Structure formats: structure tokens, C-alpha cells
Amino acid sequence: MRWSRYFLPTLKEDPAEAETASHRLMLRAGLIRKLSSGIYNLLPLGLRASRKVENIVREEMNRIGGIEILMPVLSPAELWMESGRWHVYGKELMRVRDRHDRFFALGPTHEEVVTDIVRKEVRSYRQLPLILYQIQTKFRDELRPRFGVVRAREFIMKDAYSFHRDEKSLAETYDKMYEAYTRIFTRCGLKFGPVEADSGAIGGDVTHEFMVFAETGESQVLACECGYAATSDTAEGKVPQYRPDEKQKPLEKVATPGMKTVEEVTSYLGKQPWQLLKTIIYNADGQFIGVLIRGDRQINEIKLKRVLNAVELRMADAAEIEKITGGPLGFSGPVGLEGLRLLADRSLEGMVNMVTGANEVDAHYVNVNLGRDFTVKEFYDLSIASEGDLCTRCGRPLRVWRGIEVGQIFKLGTKYSQAMKATFLDEDGKENPFVMGCYGIGITRTVAAAIEQNNDTDGISWPIGIAPFEVLILPTNVTNPELSQTAENIYSELHARGLEVLLDDRDERPGNKFKDADLIGIPFRVTVGEKGAREGIVELRRRKTGEIQRIPKQEAVETVTAVVNKEKSEATVS
Ligand code: ATP
Ligand code: MG
Questions:
Q1: CB of 482 within 8 A of CB of 533?
Q2: Tell me: the pLDDT tens digits for 240-264?
Q3: For the domain that residue 63 is a member of, what is the CATH number?
Q4: Which of 352, 380, 408 is the last residue of a domain?
Q5: What is the rounded CA–CA span in Å between residue 553 and residue 536?
Q6: Exposure class string for 353-380: b at 16+ Cβ within 10 A, else e
Q7: Does 247 fall in a domain?
Q8: Ligand 1 atom 13, closest CA
Q9: Range of the structural domain that residue 105 is part of
Q10: Which of 4, 31, 475, 557 has the fewest CB atoms lying closer than 10 Å?
Q11: 393 in a domain, yes or no?
Q12: Is residue 324 part of a domain?
């Protein structure tokens, strides 16, 4: 490709709206352009990189027996009603209406559609297991689209679905997928870790997310030296306990004028945040409940939803709190709340003489004791695990890191096949629901994650496996026929050897060309300069390290081919 004839609009300045390196660099290096909130055009370089990711994904899916199909973006509402997700999915599901007033979903994921295909076409256990996948545009009306294509409303995803006669067969495919994902992200040049996760709206119980390590990642992972790693949505840790060796003291009501927050109340009373018992009133699917947790811990609403088996969960508003507790927001407590279902986090076990709200304005109780002043029957792990909690497997302290989720794999079981009556006949001629798995990878998000991990102050530094081009040829002065000719020759010969080459044939100042070269980050650059031409050499520069190799002109093609191929073979997984 010749730069002068290509479409590669780079930006000199950092775009103001970009908060992360990948977002900034994808705009500056001309990979993407925003059309609307969370909706992006993929320009040629961005498209080439995402096609590279797609091809790696395709090869690895095919390798484990996946079969590629393409399902429609539009799927009829009736299918989503069958599974129940028309209502459950909420506002993230984009819905459209046709001229006959029929509703459709713009597919955010395709469990319903693929289950419909399979229930109509697959009858016998002999046809199982079956793995179908597609690479396609997905739509999700995200609450907060951000970071460019990392959290977009329209994006490219690979989604695979597997169908099995039993759990054992599903487990085998799940393990194969886990390995395939490991190969895919390794080939994309990423540093990542698989972690245990929550299954969210998709359903099922066993699930792993593949997380690319990144400070700017939206996901938090808690990990232990023993190998345990889980997202903060689901991570379990043993909360360090404070077991004050105190006798129960008499309950006392104290004035706390205007003191609402944990910090305000505890510092006013000369106590520590962990000595306070927080009471939060929620509405779960229309029912009010109270959740009790130690003052220094936060409620994990995902765990809470799971415990309650709730679809909608929201905090009660001030008026509702007043009605239920008799006191204003900020002064709730469990004493006297007999009518309300109370759930307590395990952090409260063993606590004595706690501070709680008194359910009236400007008042708290001190020396509140469980069993004496109030009762709770339901104790669960309801808190967000945090740095320093102890690993439930080995007892060592958990550490926190941040990451970008690039893929997730799920064991779905029979959730969809049962709801949608998708069955096959076993050896005995008996009908059974398919046992299913599903497996996603964000293609465009993976490109962004790779940039997030591979960049420096000058720009992108592509891993070879997904680089839009492998080699950039840069003649410093195209008005010099000798330089121009040398560059042209190297370009066409490398091209003939199957390398992906971009020739910067623009009549621009060398300084600008070098800046752009660093910005777009092609892994290898061959500089054809005037000084070198006099000595009969060209320079091969590695973007990642800045390392330069001077090569005699006649050997340039051989050497560059060998170096690039070596780098590529090191990036493939055997
Ligand atoms: P997240 O928690 O980040 O919203 P998710 O759990 O909803 O992701 P899945 O339903 O598992 O995502 O989708 C599979 C993959 O699709 C994700 O691992 C991610 O790489 C990608 N993906 C999901 N949502 C988006 C989005 N809004 N923009 C870009 N890629 C996305
Ligand atoms: Mg999501």
C-alpha cells in the first residue's frame, strides 16, 4: 500500500474527549472516527487490525471444531419472549418496530436465535456436540458508552454456541474453548489472565472472563498467589474480623445532629467505621428489604441480586425510607424494624456494641447487639471483596488489579433449551433438552486493549500478530530518484514475498514522516535515507525497542523478510 494513495488521516493533537491511551491513539492514528455516542467508523488501519483479530479468532475456532455461520442482526421479539429476556434484558436491548408494528431486537448476543436454529434442525444425539459461531456486529445501548470502541453501542463480536447431550460433553468443549481463548489472546500479543466471573443476564453458573491487564480497565480482579482470581463482581474473600473482646453494654440512644455518613457519625462518636452497622433499604422486584453490613464495607449488588434471585434491584428513595423506618435517609437501623426482611453480610458476625441509626432524625444507637436488640436470620457474603481480604482457598491476602474484559465463556446448561423447548432424541429415543455453552470475544475491544498495553509517548507499538501492516518503508526524500527507486524496489519485493508493507511515498518533511511512523506503530520500519544511500545501506528499526540495524542495500529484502518472519513465528502458538 502506498501512503500517498491511502486513506490514513492522522491527528497532530490529542483529542480532548479521549480519556485512555487506546482511545486517544485510535483517533490520532486514524483507526476510528466517531459518528455518534458509542458508534464509530472503522477506518482502513482500524479495519485491518480488527480483521487480523477476526482471522486469529476464526482459525482457533475452526481448530477446535467450530463451524462458522452468520445470523441476522434483527431478531423477532417473540424469540426473546420465549426465553424471557425481552423483559429481563432491560434498556440495553435495542428494539425496533417494523411497518406492521412487529417488534425486533438488534442482537446484543444470539442465544435465542441459535437455539431456534438448532431446535428446528438437530434431532439426534448423533449430531452432537455441535459448535456454531459467527463474527458479527452487535448492538447494546450501554448506559455509559466510553473509551472509544472499548464500550461502544455498536461493535464487532465473535459469539460461539455449543450444544451437547450432557454436562460431560459440555465440560470438554468448555475446556477446549478455554484453551482456544488462551491461544487467541496470546497470538494477539496480549498479557492477560482468565478469572472467575458472574454470569449476569446471560445465565448459567460456571463462567470465566479473559482480562487484559490494564490500569484503565473497568473491571477489578481479586487474585491470590495460589491461582485464585475472580472479578470483584463475584470474588469471595474472608473479611478480616474485628472481634472486640468486650462485654455487651446497655443500649443507649445518642444525639447525632446532622450526622449521616459513616465517617461523620463514627468520628463524632469517637468510633471507627468498622464499629458501625450500615442499614441500606432496597427494593428487589417490588419487595422492600434491609441489608446490614459493617461500616467499612460496601454492598455488592450483584451478589445481593443472586442471593435474592432478583431481576430488578434498586435502593429505596428518601420517601420510601421514611415510610418503612419512620426516620429519614441516613438514620436507618435494624432496631425496631421487625416487619422488614433483613439480610446481613458476614462481616457482622461476632460484632458487639455496634453503632446503628435509630430510625429517627439526628439520632443513633450505641452498644447495639445482635440477638439482644434485633435479630437477623439470614447471613450471606454480600460485600465487595477488597484488597487484603483473605483467600477462601488458602488464607493468604487477596491483591487487586484492573483489567479490560476481552472475552467470556459460559456454561449455560439447559436455561435456553428448556425455555425454548429445544430437544434432541437420545439412544433410547427419549427427548432431552440440549445442554449449552456460549462464548464471546469482543473483536474491536481486543484491538483497543492491545493498544492500551502496547504504546509509548510517541504512539502505538503493534504486536506483530495484529499489526495493520508488518513493515513500513520510509524514504526520507521522495524527490531524490535514487532513494525513491530503492524504496520502491524493497517495497515490491517484500510485497512479493507475502509481507504486508506500507510505503510512505509522501513528499513530506522527514521529521513529519518519522512522527507519523511512530504514531501508527508498524512493528518494523525500513528507512531509506540520503546518508545511507551514499554508503549503500538502509536502516531497519524495531518500533518496540528503537533498536536499529544497518543493512547493506542488496541484503535488505532477505534480512527484513527473515526478521519479520522470525517475529511472526515467535508470536504464533504451537
Ligand atoms: P461488559 O461487562 O464489559 O459489559 P459483558 O460481560 O456484557 O461485558 P459479554 O456479554 O460477555 O460482555 O460479551 C462478550 C464480549 O463482547 C465481551 O467480553 C467484550 O469483549 C465484548 N463487549 C461487550 N460489550 C461491549 C461493548 N459495549 N463494546 C465493545 N465490546 C463489548
Ligand atoms: Mg455488558
A1: yes
A2: 887 667 899 999 999 999 998 999 9
A3: 3.30.930.10
A4: 380
A5: 6
A6: bbbbbbbeebbbbbbbbbeebbeeeeee
A7: no
A8: 440
A9: 11-236+400-452
A10: 4
A11: no
A12: yes
Q: Is residue 244 part of a domain?
A: no
Kindly report the protein residue whose alpha carbon is nearest to atom 31 of ligand 1: 442
The pTM of this model reads: 0.89
Query: Which residue ranges have their beta carbon within 6 Å of ligand 1?
Result: 109, 140, 142, 151-152, 155, 157, 200, 405-408, 440-442, 444-445
189: left (phi over 0), alpha (psi -120 to 50) or beta: left
With a cut of 60, say whether residue 427 has pLDDT above it.
yes
Question: 433, 416 in Cβ contact below 8 A?
Answer: no
What pLDDT digit, counting tens, does each position of 508-532 carry? 999 999 999 999 999 999 999 999 9
Contact 40, 47 (CB under 8 A): no
Question: Residue 121 corresponds to which cell in the numbers above?
Answer: 434442525
**Number of neighbours of residue 269 by Cβ within 10 angstroms:** 16
Instruction: Flag whether pLDDT at 402 surpasses 80.
Output: yes
The reported pLDDT for the residue numbered 572 is 85
Phi and psi at residue 439, in whole multiples of 5°? -150, 115
User: What SS3 class is residue 282?
Assistant: strand
Residue with cell 479490560: 404
CA triple 106-107-108, angle to 5 deg:
115
Instruction: Tell the residue nearest (CA) to atom 24 of ligand 1.
Output: 151
Ligand 1 atom with the shortest distance to the CA of 407: 18
pLDDT of residue 481: 95
Burial zone of 99 (CB within 10 Å; 0-12 exposed, 13-18 middle, 19+ buried): exposed
Residue 428 CA to ligand 2 center (angstroms) comes to 41
